[in-house]
Design a protein that fits this description.
The protein has helices spanning 4-10, 35-44, 63-70, 81-85, 88-95, 106-113, 120-127, 140-144, 146-157, 183-193, 228-239, 267-276, 323-329, 346-356, 397-411, 413-419, and strands spanning 21-26, 48-53, 98-104, 132-136, 161-162, 166-169, 175-179, 203-208, 213-214, 220-221, 243-248, 260-263, 283-286, 293-295, 317-319, 335-342, 361-366, 378-385, 388-396. It is of the alpha/beta class. The chain has 2 domains: 9-193, 3-Layer(aba) Sandwich (Rossmann fold); 203-295 and 315-420, CoaB-like (Rossmann fold, 3-Layer(aba) Sandwich). The strands form 5 sheets. Strands 12-11-8-13-16-17-18-19 form an 8-stranded mixed beta sheet, with helices on both faces. A 5-stranded parallel beta sheet has the order 2-1-3-4-5, sandwiched between helices. It is elongated and about 85 Å long. Bound molecules: cytidine-5'-monophosphate (C5P). Cytidine-5'-monophosphate binds at residues 207, 267, 286, 288, 290, 292, 320, 322-324, 338-340, 353.
Length: 426
């Protein structure tokens, strides 16, 4: 048996890619001839691989070769009626645990940087929630051009990982930076992303999104939560090897295959779903913005203007149950992590909330800053636990989710190991 921390150090062995779904996205550069070798290396460590080709990549590597080495049909056409009847690009985007764009030509990089979606490869990259790793490969002048350098910075800002390129002799006879990293380096990098597979064997429940509390058949009260942060945490926990159950409020975007999902509408429904599936849960992360109150009476027919003189309407509200506080009372007690969206005296309120609700940790969002939090792709937070506080600087919600999972594993190493000792053995 090894400790969780030791496990984190060893988890970047390529074997931690076993069973992972890797989508290899090949664009049209000479380095595409190495794509079959990348596939072989990935399959040798137990990964499942599918390939998507950009519109012109077939000029450099044949789909037949790639189909032979992956054992799966190669996807290259947005207008493949059979595949797209089932929304093939979305399925592919959801299937992937990691997308590796290798080689990434200057053109593909530019498309990724600007969010273009004009072929299957770029569309899939836009549609996926999985981490995207980009291996640039191009002529050294093209690589050093300020436009390409700006595009590299742009994709980094989107949270994509860049590997390479190497420097040296190029196919065109030039010498300089632009050679794609070797397949074994790329695979080693993908394995390093799986550092968070430390959650394997753990059962994680996450609530996400708003709840919606009906007033009458057409009206409701709700809040601005998009559910993206909760969804990203669910995806990060799954990528970390956990069995994930997501209790999702309305409007939460689609989650990957492999995440068990229950859709709910009201706080009461969310509470029932949580309680019903709580047995065996090791870690509970309450990200949902649960409505604190609901209308006392839900009118069965649409309410009409009263026509009275006061011109006002009074609704009576009753308090909703505090779902996370209920989870914290459950025995055996899972590790319980809450979120706090605050606008004023943020630290003070969040610290008090953690103690009042008996949470192991709370993630504080300062929602007074409109560039983060609700309806933003970015977030920044402070992770507050009994013995310390950690600042999680502004980053994409998916990056913040990955960082949060890594931090929780470090802080609660012994508790996470205790809940499921079997998962710690190698
Ligand atoms: O009290 P407040 O809503 O700020 O607490 C936020 C935390 O409590 C979040 O983790 C949220 O998911 C959880 N919560 C809950 N049930 C409620 C209200 C909040 O689980 N009724």
């Amino acid at each position: 048996m090894i400790s969780k921390l030791e496990h984190m150090k060893t988890a970047s062995e390529p074997s931690c890619l076993r069973g992972k779904h890797i989508l290899l996205a090949v664009s049209a550069g000479i380095a595409a001839y190495k794509a079959p070798l990348i596939v072989r290396t990935l399959r040798a460590v137990g990964a499942q691989v599918q390939v998507v080709l950009s519109a012109n990549a077939h000029h450099f590597v044949t789909p037949t070769t790639l189909q032979a080495v992956t054992g799966s049909p190669v996807r290259q056409d947005m207008w493949d009626e059979a595949a797209e009847a089932a929304m093939g690009h979305i399925e592919l985007a959801r299937w992937a645990d990691i997308v590796l764009v290798a080689p990434a030509t200057a053109n593909t990089l530019a498309k990724l940087a600007h969010g273009m979606a004009d072929d299957l490869l770029s569309t899939t990259c836009l549609a996926t929630q999985a981490p995207i790793v980009v291996a640039p490969a191009m002529n050294q002048r093209m690589y050093q051009h300020p436009a390409t350098q700006a595009n590299l910075k742009a994709v980094q800002a989107l949270g994509y990982h860049i590997v390479g390129p190497d420097s040296g002799e190029q196919a065109c006879g030039d010498d300089g930076p632009g050679r794609m990293s070797e397949p074994d380096e790329l695979v080693a990098f993908l394995a390093s992303l799986q550092v968070t597979s430390v959650l394997s064997g753990q059962h994680v429940m996450i609530t996400a999104g708003p709840t919606l509390e009906p007033i009458d058949p057409v009206r409701y009260i709700s809040n601005h939560s998009s559910g993206l942060q909760g969804l990203s945490i669910a995806e990060a926990a799954k990528a970390a090897g956990a069995e994930v159950i997501l209790i999702a409020g309305p409007r939460v975007a689609a989650s990957s295959a492999g995440i068990q999902r229950l859709n709910v509408v009201t706080a009461l429904e969310m509470q029932s779903a949580v309680q019903e599936h709580l047995a065996g849960i090791d870690i509970f992360i309450g990200v949902a913005a649960v409505a604190d109150y609901r209308p006392k009476l839900v009118e069965q027919v649409k309410m009409k203007r009263s026509g009275g003189e006061s011109g006002s309407l009074t609704l009576e509200f009753v308090e909703n149950p505090d779902i996370i506080a209920g989870v914290a009372q459950h025995r055996p007690k899972p590790l319980v992590i809450g979120f706090a969206a605050e606008t004023n005296n943020t630290l003070e309120h969040a610290r008090a909330k953690r103690i009042r609700k008996q949470l192991d940790a709370i993630v504080l969002n300062d929602i007074a800053d409109p560039s983060i939090g609700f309806n933003s792709l970015h977030n920044a937070a402070t992770l507050i636990f009994e013995h310390g506080e950690i600042t999680l600087p502004k980053q994409t919600k998916r990056q913040l989710a990955d960082t949060l999972i890594s931090q929780l594993v470090l802080i609660f190493a012994s508790q996470i190991a205790d809940t499921n000792p079997g998962s710690m053995s190698e």
